[in-house]
TrEMBL record:
Heme b binds at H221. Residues 54-354 form the Plant heme peroxidase family profile domain. Ca(2+) 1 binds at D96, V99, G101, S105, E117. PROSITE patterns: PEROXIDASE_1, PEROXIDASE_2, PEROXIDASE_4. It catalyses: 2 a phenolic donor + H2O2 = 2 a phenolic radical donor + 2 H2O. Disulfide bonds join C64-C143, C97-C102, C149-C350, C228-C260. It comes from Linum tenue. This is Peroxidase. GO terms for cellular component: extracellular region. Substrate binds at P191. Removal of H(2)O(2), oxidation of toxic reductants, biosynthesis and degradation of lignin, suberization, auxin catabolism, response to environmental stresses such as wounding, pathogen attack and oxidative stress. These functions might be dependent on each isozyme/isoform in each plant tissue. Keywords: Calcium, Disulfide bond, Heme, Hydrogen peroxide, Iron, Metal-binding, Oxidoreductase, Peroxidase, Secreted, Signal. One of its GO terms (molecular function) is heme binding.
Length: 354
């Protein structure tokens, strides 16, 4: 009996010990699991995150209810005077979001000589700053210190597409403005018009954007222009041997050579020949026909996902789904690296930190 009781006591002690160990292991497992999840979240929510936490449609409905109406009115006036301003405003938003995120760093003047994003070579041809300033000034008169320059950029891009016949989307707002702008970061982060498909995919992926987003957002080139200098190598010195890019349609290349002289001299060129002032899917027809002016546009045919999108939009009735797709990808791009809540500031003037 004594031995039996000792065995039972020993068994109970062991059971209790094993139960304690089991509970400790469960706790440790939960801790490790939580830690792993935190690592994963940290990995996907760096400075180029696209979660857009803190953004929402109608953010200014109470604090500045006329903000979007004022922006639209001011932008409509600018585009009525010069329709090419629409493409400029759309491009400003792109170039802002791809460097430090959508926080209006592209608008800042340099604190030191030549050290702001707008001083970087990819941004030399940016324009439309005056229109953004006009919008900011008009909104400040109505609601001082409320609406960020970053949100004005997003609204201007949306309205530029809308006013050139494109689709409308409910742009999310609630961004705040950053305080840092460095030319080297623009050089490092902006995709080049000479990028091949591998470089483009890597660049977009680094911002949390997919291959479909790449194909869709390239459609921004439905409006806008470029220069002979940008495509000069494709026409006259593609491999350094005085040759023409074989990816260009030969007849189209001949037409371009009549306009563009060796060395880059010549007129301004429509990115979407014959339809550069209308936001539509015509751009994809040109790309499919090997008439995309930029190397980056032609490269869309070199990946099965982007090529399929080009083909679909070039054959569907007036690019039936392009407008919807563009709005969704623009919303997604507009969430990259946003500052919200107490981050950043609301600039009084878009070219200067407070």
């Amino acid at each position: 009996q004594h031995n039996t009781n000792s065995f039972i006591a020993t068994t109970d002690t062991l059971a209790a010990a094993f139960d304690h160990i089991h509970r400790e292991m469960a706790v440790q497992t939960r801790v490790v699991s939580i830690f792993f999840i935190q690592l994963v979240l940290l990995a996907v929510s760096g400075p180029n995150r696209v979660d857009g936490a803190g953004l929402r449609t109608g953010y200014y409905d109470e604090s500045c209810p006329d903000a979007e109406t004022i922006a639209l009115k001011t932008i409509r006036k600018a585009i009525s005077k010069d329709v090419t301003v629409a493409a400029a405003l759309l491009r400003l938003h792109f170039h802002d979001c791809f460097v430090r995120g959508c926080e209006a760093s592209v608008l800042l003047d340099a604190a030191e000589e030549g050290d702001a994003e707008k001083d970087a070579s990819p941004n030399f041809s940016l324009r439309g700053y005056d229109v953004i300033d006009d919008v900011k000034s008009a909104i400040e008169t109505s609601c001082p210190g409320v609406v960020s320059c970053a949100d004005i950029l997003a609204l201007a891009a949306r309205d530029a597409v809308r006013l050139t016949g494109g689709s409308f989307w409910k742009a999310e707002t609630g961004r705040r403005d950053g305080r840092i702008s460095l030319s080297k970061e623009a050089e490092e982060n902006l995709p080049s018009s000479n990028f091949n498909i591998a470089q483009l995919k890597q660049n977009f992926a680094s911002k949390g954007l997919t291959k479909k987003d790449l194909a869709v957002l390239s459609g921004a080139h439905t409006i806008g222009v470029t220069s002979c200098f940008v495509i000069n190598d494709r026409l006259y010195n593609f491999t350094g041997r005085s040759d023409t890019d074989p990816a260009l349609d030969p007849t189209f290349a001949t037409e371009m050579k009549k306009k563009c002289k060796p060395g880059g001299g010549g007129p301004v060129l429509e990115l979407d020949q014959g339809s550069s002032t209308v936001s539509d899917a015509h751009f994809y027809k040109a790309v499919r026909q090997n008439r995309g002016l930029l190397t980056s546009d032609a490269s869309l045919l070199n990946d099965h996902v982007t090529r399929a999108y080009v083909k679909r939009q070039s054959t569907s009735a007036a690019g039936a789904t392009f407008g919807w797709d563009f709005g969704k990808s623009m919303e997604k791009m507009g969430r990259i690296g946003v500052l919200t809540g107490s981050e950043g500031e609301i600039r009084k003037r878009c070219a200067f930190v407070n």
